[in-house]
Design goal:
Length: about 150
């Protein structure tokens, strides 16, 4: 019998684990990335909740899909009174936003980065309802007077 470590692929729910011969379990890189994005989305949802403007989009439900050059995709479901970040790809988003990375996304949502400058620099592009792609920039923006828009499809 050969000595040394051998990897055994074990699947548990949707996560991939690799068990070594010594009984230790190691997360695969893709599972580690998935756990990191889930943690980040929970943290961002909590930090943005205090700045959320319920009813701002004047729609019962809107789905913003975020796609990145670098990083895992996620989407934001906005309802009349609440919102939720979800990892992955939504099959029917209202609008899809294309960004270089997560830092750019969070900067725009938190109001730390100017949306127009990001657009002009090629860091912010949208497909779908273009009006909503602009309104999302104000959905969580803190301490600024809010302009009221009526959104029509």
């Amino acid at each position: 019998m050969k000595s040394g470590k051998r990897n055994v692929n074990i699947r548990s729910s949707r996560r991939r684990y690799f068990g070594a011969a010594d009984g230790r379990i190691h997360l695969s890189p893709t599972t580690h990335d998935a756990l990191m994005i889930e943690t980040t989305l929970i943290e961002k949802q909590q930090s943005l909740a205090e700045h959320f403007k319920p009813g701002f989009l004047q729609r019962p439900e809107t789905v913003f899909q975020f796609r990145f050059d670098v990083g895992e995709a996620f989407y934001l479901c906005v309802f009349a009174e609440t919102f939720k970040f979800v990892s992955g790809v939504n099959p029917l988003p209202t609008v899809t936003l294309f960004l270089p990375d997560h830092a750019t996304c969070w900067g725009l949502l938190e109001g730390k980065r100017d949306g127009m400058k990001a657009f002009l620099q090629g860091d912010y592009r949208a497909d779908g309802n273009i009006v909503l792609s602009q309104l999302i920039l104000y959905l969580f923006k803190p301490n600024d007077p809010t302009l009221i828009y009526e959104v029509q499809d």
